Amino acid sequence: MTSTPFAATVSRNPAAKTPEQRDAILADPGFGNHFTDHMFLAEWTPDTGWANGRVVPYGPLSIDPATAVLHYAQEIFEGLKAYVHADGSVWLFRPEANAARLQRSAHRLALPELPTDWFLGSVTALVDADRDWVPSGGEKSLYLRPFMFASEVFLGVRPSQHVTYSVIASPAGAYFKGGVKPVSIWLSSQYSRAGTGGTGAAKCGGNYAASLLPQQEGMEHGCEQVVFLDSTEHTWIEELGGMNLYFVHSDGSIVTPTLSGSILEGITRDSIIQVARDLGHEVVERRVSIQEWREGVADGSITEVFACGTAAVITPVGTLKWDGGEVTSGDGEAGKVTSDIRSALIDIQYGRAEDRHGWLTRVS
Ligand SMILES: *Cc1c(COP(=O)(O)O)cnc(C)c1O
């Protein structure tokens, strides 16, 4: 059955945090540590379509041990942020792109697609209920986490006939506290994040589960992040565990690995293509080999490397390490092109620069 248009009831949290408790959290929220007073919930069945939209007090979900997601990982998610502008208004950055990606992820994981009006309605309703939790000043934001999972109580292997959709919200501090610092990257030679025909282009929890062991290996080698290559030839750069990659060349052109089907289509990645072009850079999407990264940094044809995603926006990449060597781009600071693109994007998100591409949606 097709879903009815978005509608939601709101039950206020009688045990909401006091303004003092909230202010203490918002002073130094970190990332993913604290959650707001409310959450959004809705359910889908083949008979009802998406229904029962509601904003309710934040709290635990009660899950039967035989709930399908716990066994077969039929689960997808999104991540986007709400930003306060100088006049106190609250805005989302390209939320319809997140809605479309959640639909693509749902398709790949055999979950029901959530209509765009439900996606936008749910995140807006939650931001509205938790308006006081959107932090202002200094690159702070309210991180929104929509997610969907198989909630049928059933151990057979087939798409779930009962699905739950939820949105939770978590205040986020500036990703880089002491200024933007380059991260070091471990080249995983043994593991891939995703394979041809697999779920790499879907934003599903299972991809992250598969990235944790190589991530641990990277940390044992003193690196903060891991870069994954294609699973067939082990030659072509795909992305980090949760961020896309960019290479700045000495002629000012910028290259990012072309979407291969196993790379997650980052909305930050897509926005950077436009912002970099607006700044006068040539932007090329093509295959990039790991050899090109190593040799390009060594011979100076690659001058800057950066990673991008909603959480950090843009992270400069310093050292690439592998079993037997390493190369370092830059001098331990963010490069100029990296910094300029980062500022240009953040200025749009915080309303300090003109929204030339119609990327912002006001929610409060
Ligand atoms: C979410 C995600 C990204 C970044 O996507 P954004 O839309 O820019 O936040 C990149 N890679 C993976 C694997 C991701 O899950």
UniProtKB/TrEMBL annotation:
GO molecular function: branched-chain-amino-acid transaminase activity
Name of the protein in question: Branched-chain-amino-acid aminotransferase
Polar residues composition bias: residue spans: 1-12
Cited Pfam families: Aminotran_4
Cofactor(s) for this UniProt protein: pyridoxal 5'-phosphate
Catalyzed chemical reaction(s): L-valine + 2-oxoglutarate = 3-methyl-2-oxobutanoate + L-glutamate; L-leucine + 2-oxoglutarate = 4-methyl-2-oxopentanoate + L-glutamate; L-isoleucine + 2-oxoglutarate = (S)-3-methyl-2-oxopentanoate + L-glutamate
PROSITE patterns: AA_TRANSFER_CLASS_4
Claim: Transferase is one of the keywords in the record: yes
EC number per UniProt: 2.6.1.42
Alphabetical list of InterPro entries matching this protein: Aminotrans_IV (IPR001544), Aminotrans_IV_CS (IPR018300), Aminotransferase-like (IPR036038), B_amino_transII (IPR005786), BCAT-like_C (IPR043132), BCAT-like_N (IPR043131), BCAT_family (IPR033939)
Annotated pathway: Amino-acid biosynthesis; L-valine biosynthesis; L-valine from pyruvate: step 4/4; Amino-acid biosynthesis; L-isoleucine biosynthesis; L-isoleucine from 2-oxobutanoate: step 4/4; Amino-acid biosynthesis; L-leucine biosynthesis; L-leucine from 3-methyl-2-oxobutanoate: step 4/4
Ranges where the record places region Disordered: 1-20
Cited SUPFAM superfamilies: D-aminoacid aminotransferase-like PLP-dependent enzymes
Organism encoding this protein: Aeromicrobium wangtongii
TM segment ranges: none
Alphabetical keyword list: Amino-acid biosynthesis, Aminotransferase, Branched-chain amino acid biosynthesis, Pyridoxal phosphate, Transferase
Lineage: Bacteria, Bacillati, Actinomycetota, Actinomycetes, Propionibacteriales
Keyword Transferase: yes
Similarity annotation: Belongs to the class-IV pyridoxal-phosphate-dependent aminotransferase family.
